[in-house]
Amino acid sequence: MCSVACNALGIWSLILRLQNVYGEGQSLNNPYTGILSIFSTRIRQGLSVPILEDGLESRDFVNVTDVARAIRLSLENDEANGKILNVGSGKPTGILEVANLLVKTFRSSSRPEITKQFRLGDIRHWYADLSLVSDSLGLQPEVCLESGIARFVQSVKAQPLSKDRLNEANKELRERKMMV
Known about the structure:
The chain has helices at 2-9, 35-44, 64-76, 95-106, 131-137, 145-157, 166-175, and strands at residues 14-18, 20-22, 49-51, 58-59, 61-63, 83-87, 93-94, 112-114.
């Protein structure tokens, strides 16, 4: 709707489809900000890391630094006008793999635990095609997952330990019949 309206009115527009954004400064107090926040809080508390489904579902994790660069480049480039651009790493990463990387980076004894639960409507595998953002802006992700996670963990360690709110969030999902 935004694209159609802007086009009809001759207004510059751009839509950036951000994938799973993570990074330094990410809120750790809100269980809806992403699994890295949830996992890191549980790891710091020495709790298990619950993994939905079988852990093999995948997502595209993109560091906030790459997202900020995408925003800057798109605003500086008239070539972006009217485009819908995916911003991500372009790589699928398994949820179990991310959990294990976090545990390793924290040097924790916490362990991932496959729950076999699932949320209704979740997509099993999701990652971005970056060809249009690359062609339009010359953008390629620069922060690999391993170094991005290392930076994320350093920022998490500098913050006060958050309350684990995962059970509250899951309870709400079950009450709304969105989690099995």
